[in-house]
């Protein structure tokens, strides 16, 4: 890609969706360990205790915990120059509120990071990708409680110091921006991000406002911490941003689409503009919500702006008066754009949308952007050990081209493209294995059966060529 030298090519994975080994190496139980498998028709169930009769996909994942070396070799074979992983907080602090870290947890990620470095793959490390020790939810009420910010800072400081000479790129949170207090109403999203079910919150709007504020504050504090630990650190935050277009040019629909789209941005504003947005505070005041904010929060926001934006992009949505657009409705179908094809899970396939968001973000914040997730969840068929996933190649090729246009023609500063996920893993929203994203097929089905063997799909070689040609086919 001409606009960027040292452009990162690679993929992203998350601990709770791939590692498995949920009781090994001293790991404590984390929020996603209590979520069963669902489907594109049936939401996942969140249980209070582990019920041995039920199926919890995070317990096995794809057993990356034991396969990481071989998997990294496959990433290397494709030519990856970066891999985004997440550290599972519950491996480092099994309950979350301990003072001393779990050495076995630190050692596991050290092995993974060393393996990446030995293969010239830059580790980009997410500190929180839906992985919170469940104890922090039960004993403290999760992010509603400001004490959790201190536990999170202690955890972040521990890992940032421990891997200081090895990791340069850090991500504070994955997609916390999906929790807009005024629009979010789905159990799965509030649970993924904060370990709490929307339907069980007594004051959901107030609770989500607190959670959103506290997480954002925690994020800017970690930025400062990262710079103190090592001024060379680059620290960003990953946001899930799927543009929301107006259903038509009826002005009230256009205005609604503007506000629907904007709801995903207040935390991006807070982390990039050096202050928590005034419009959001005014909205909370009007709703009678009083956030617990301290005088030095203002300084924390002021000094904690991120170095880069991570963009997770999958689809676009449309908005129309009196029609829900966000949350489960969009996740499992909902209002569809007649100009787009949809994936089997109802996600509108829209390569132009990635160029649109890249431009929107860059013009609004002028910060470097890395695409931290992009991919197509699809059902793959294995024929004589081969997987002909031309639909995935088609999706990715169009998106890579749109990124290229954003960089070469629109002058967006984008420094990497990481797919979700380079290897099949457990779907976050549905818990299925059959919703596959990888270049590497994992022999594991929705019932948890399979050899766990890895196979290269056709897209494996396609991506290898894309990387070789730095975005162009060589
Ligand atoms: C992103 C998440 O929002 O979407 C990932 O960061 C997730 O964790 C990805 O896996 C795709 O969603 P799903 O539900 O298809 O796995």
Span between N and C termini? Answer: 12 Å
- Strand tally, please? 12
Major sheet: size, sense and barrel closure?
8 strands, parallel, barrel
In DSSP terms (H or I, runs of 4 or more residues), the helix count works out at: 16
Compute the number of structural domains: 1
Brief sketch in words of this structure:
With 474 residues, the chain is α/β, with parallel strands linked by helices. It has 16 helices and 12 strands. The chain has one domain: TIM Barrel (Alpha-Beta Barrel), CATH 3.20.20.80.
Task: Describe the secondary structure blueprint for this structure.
Layout lengths: L7 E5 L2 H4 L45 H15 L3 E5 L2 H4 L10 H16 L3 E5 L7 H7 L6 H16 L6 E6 L12 H8 L9 H26 L4 E7 L3 E3 L4 H12 L3 H7 L5 H9 L10 H7 L4 E5 L4 E3 L7 H5 L19 H15 L3 E5 L16 H19 L5 E7 L19 E3 L11 E3 L1 H11 L6
Parallel strand pairs: 1-2, 1-10, 2-3, 3-4, 4-5, 5-7, 6-8, 7-9, 9-10
Antiparallel strand pairs: 11-12
Bound molecules: 6-O-phosphono-beta-D-glucopyranose.
Structural write-up:
It is a single chain. The chain has a single domain, classed as Glycosidases (TIM Barrel). The strands form 3 sheets. An 8-stranded parallel barrel has the order 1-2-3-4-5-7-9-10, surrounded by 4 helices. A two-stranded parallel sheet has the order 6-8. The chain has a two-stranded antiparallel ribbon with strand order 11-12. α2 packs parallel to α4 and α6 packs parallel to α8. It is globular and about 60 Å long. Helix content is 38%, strand content 12%. β9, α15 and β10 form a beta-alpha-beta unit. The model has no long low-confidence stretch (mean pLDDT 93). The protein has 474 residues and is of the alpha/beta class.
């Amino acid at each position: 890609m001409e606009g960027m030298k040292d452009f990162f090519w690679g993929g992203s994975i998350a601990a709770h969706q791939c590692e498995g080994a949920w009781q090994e190496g001293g790991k404590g139980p984390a929020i996603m360990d209590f979520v069963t498998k669902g489907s594109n028709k049936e939401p996942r169930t969140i249980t209070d205790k582990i019920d041995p009769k039920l199926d919890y996909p995070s317990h096995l994942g794809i057993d990356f915990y034991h396969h990481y070396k071989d998997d990294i070799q496959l990433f290397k074979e494709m030519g990856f120059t970066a891999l985004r992983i997440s550290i599972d907080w519950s491996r480092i602090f099994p309950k979350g509120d301990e003072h001393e870290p779990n050495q076995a947890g630190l050692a596991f990620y050290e092995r993974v990071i060393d393996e990446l470095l030995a293969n010239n793959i830059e580790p980009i490390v997410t500190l929180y990708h839906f992985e919170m020790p469940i104890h922090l939810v039960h004993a403290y009420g999760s992010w509603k409680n400001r004490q959790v910010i201190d536990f999170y800072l202690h955890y972040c400081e521990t890992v940032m110091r421990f891997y200081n000479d090895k990791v340069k790129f850090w991500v504070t949170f994955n997609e916390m921006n999906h929790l807009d207090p005024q629009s979010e109403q789905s159990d799965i999203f509030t649970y993924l991000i904060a370990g709490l079910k929307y339907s069980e919150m007594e004051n959901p709007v107030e609770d989500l406002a607190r959670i959103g504020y506290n997480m954002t504050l925690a994020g800017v504090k970690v930025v400062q911490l990262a710079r103190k630990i090592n001024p060379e650190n680059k620290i960003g935050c990953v946001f899930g941003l799927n543009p929301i277009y107006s259903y038509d040019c009826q002005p009230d629909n256009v205005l609604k689409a503007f506000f629907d789209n904007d709801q995903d941005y207040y935390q991006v504003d807070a982390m990039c503009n050096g202050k928590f947005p005034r419009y959001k505070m005014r909205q909370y005041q009007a709703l009678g919500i009083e956030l617990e904010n301290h005088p030095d929060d203002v300084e924390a926001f002021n000094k904690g702006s991120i170095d880069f934006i991570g963009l997770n992009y999958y689809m676009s949505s449309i908005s129309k008066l009196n029609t829900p657009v966000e949350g489960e409705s969009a996740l499992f179908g909902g209002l569809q754009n007649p100009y787009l094809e949809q994936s089997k899970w109802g996600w509108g396939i829209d390569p132009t949308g990635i160029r649109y968001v890249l431009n929107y973000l860059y013009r609004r914040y002028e910060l470097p952007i890395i695409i931290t997730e992009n991919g197509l969840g699809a059902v793959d068929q294995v024929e004589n050990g081969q997987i002909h996933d031309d639909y995935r190649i088609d999706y990715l090729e169009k998106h890579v081209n749109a990124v290229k246009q954003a960089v070469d023609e629109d002058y967006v500063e984008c420094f990497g493209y990481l797919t979700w996920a380079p290897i099949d893993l457990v779907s976050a929203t549905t818990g299925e294995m059959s919703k596959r994203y990888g270049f590497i097929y994992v022999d594991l089905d929705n019932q948890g059966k399979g050899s766990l063997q890895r196979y290269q799909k056709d897209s494996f070689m396609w991506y290898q060529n894309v990387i070789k040609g730095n975005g162009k086919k060589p």
